[in-house]
Specification:
The chain has helices spanning 62-84, 145-159, 164-179, 182-189, 193-205, 225-246, 268-274; strands spanning 9-21, 35-39, 42-47, 50-55, 89-101, 112-116, 123-125. Strands 1, 2, 3, 4, 5, 6 and 7 form a 7-stranded antiparallel beta sheet that branches. It is of the alpha+beta class and 279 residues long.
Length: 279
């Protein structure tokens, strides 16, 4: 009685990406950049126009390998966008290589290179600093759906600064919904409650004319340069801190910086102080 021949085995050996430059940042021409990075399940060699990732553990399909690598690239890109202020580079998946190991009668395997030619299927961005410097991978950080939306809204706020209050309020609403309420969000993200209160207040009462998120009774808060900078800083911190929490890590510091301005501009400050609730 004959036994069926065992099926061939496959092992992914390489994932290759084209490196495309986005945004304002550029790698200096003529600089020979070749950096090695280590990610979960992969080592990578990154050059100005290409990147090759080699699995450090076994993947039997290209889809399986990409499913592990690409979320890390998304998180890396988002982290650099928020911490460096530039969407500097993007990796576009180009191809993969795998080895086929057909069994032979003596029980050994003959490895055969099998190129898995895959078409470009979208952009998996990652960032490089100018002058050819590649930033370190982020600490524990996950780019989930809320981070993705936050990064998009944050970019819109940078490009359309007169609408910062609208974009900021939209993200604050999502944060409160994700964590249950403003109190729970402040606790989880290690942000003082008055900071969230003033962020909401600036988004609601800040500016005039087209800057206004909504028409409200009472006094308006002027969008000074210092307040606009603070608003974007808090916006950025909320996204970064949620990404850390999503990755299972607690932010290491407490964010306590209040909005620039006199106490009379923010009536809740006196109320918080009277009840002994600094944060």
């Amino acid at each position: 009685m004959s036994t069926p021949a065992p099926s061939a085995k496959f092992r992914v050996t390489k994932l290759t990406y084209k490196v495309e430059q986005l945004g304002q940042g550029r790698i200096a021409e003529g600089v020979g950049v070749r950096s090695e990075v280590t990610l979960d399940g992969f080592t990578g060699v990154i050059e100005p126009r290409s990147a090759v990732f080699t699995p450090s553990r076994e993947f039997t399909s290209v889809d399986e390998a990409r499913a592990v690598l690409e979320p890390q690239l998304n998180a890396w890109r988002a982290w650099v966008q928020l911490t460096k202020g530039e969407d500097l580079m993007a990796f576009a998946f180009a191809s993969a290589a795998r080895e086929t190991s057909p069994p032979v009668p003596d029980g050994h395997y003959v490895l055969v290179l099998d190129s898995a030619a895959l078409s470009l299927t979208g952009h998996i961005p990652i960032a490089l600093l100018t002058y050819g410097q590649i930033p370190e991978p982020p600490p524990a950080f996950r780019c989930d759906d809320l981070v993705e939306v936050g990064v998009a809204l944050y970019a819109d706020a940078r490009n359309l600064s007169r609408h910062t209050g609208k974009f900021g309020y939209a993200f604050l609403t999502m944060i409160k919904d994700r964590y249950g309420n403003e109190i729970l969000a402040a606790k989880a993200l290690h942000v003082d409650r008055p900071v969230l209160a003033e962020f909401k207040d600036m988004c609601t009462r800040g500016g005039s004319g087209v800057e206004m998120r909504k028409a409200t009774k009472g006094s308006r808060l002027e969008f000074t340069a210092a307040r606009a900078e603070w608003l974007m800083r808090v916006f950025r911190e909320l996204i970064l801190r949620h990404g850390q929490v999503a990755a299972g890590a607690a932010p290491q510091d407490q964010f306590v910086d209040l909005c620039p301005g006199a106490d009379e501009d923010f009536p809740h400050r006196a109320k918080m102080a009277a009840h002994g609730r600094p944060g």
